[in-house]
Amino acid sequence: MKNPDFNRSAPKPAAIARKNPAQAAKNRELALEALKGKVALNLTYEGAAIVAEVHTVGQTKTFRPAMLVFVNDAFRVLYFDEAFDVALSEMASSAPRDGFKAHARDFRKFDAVA
After folding, report:
1. Which SS3 state, helix, strand or coil, does residue 91 take?
2. Residues 6 or more apart from 28 whose CB is under 8 A from it?
3. Which CATH architecture has domain 21-113?
4. Phi, psi for residue 22 in degrees, rounded to 5
5. Least confident interval from 30-34, 39-43, 45-49
6. What is the CA radius of gyration of the chain?
7. CA 68 to CA 6: how far, in whole Å?
8. Is the pLDDT reported for residue 4 higher than 60?
9. Where are the alpha helices (DSSP H) in the chain?
10. Where do the segments described as Disordered lie (predicted)?
11. Dihedral, CA atoms, 47, 32, 100, 62, nearest 10 degrees?
12. What distances in angstroms separate CA 1 from CA 6, 9, 105, one per listed residue?
């Protein structure tokens, strides 16, 4: 029996997060460069262009490569496979910012810390 309320032409829900696995390793290398060179990163994340100050590069407790960044007056964990158009910025980074706790947060492995 067919459901009369089912509409095949209804729009599909948007994907939660676009994945960029091909660039994940390069994004990680750029984050390490930004941390070492004390500059910010320009990137697109969740469809928004942002400037991020990298504080930690490593692996989360869920075994995903990620970075802890300072964006818009808050710390956020960004995953390398969800970041697009990553590039080094000319803007100097103020890492480590007040409130930053090294070896804290959701990370299980640390590759570099500010």
Report:
1. strand
2. 57, 65, 67, 80, 111
3. Roll (2.30)
4. -65, -30
5. 45-49
6. 17
7. 43
8. no
9. 24-37
10. 1-22
11. 70
12. 12, 19, 51
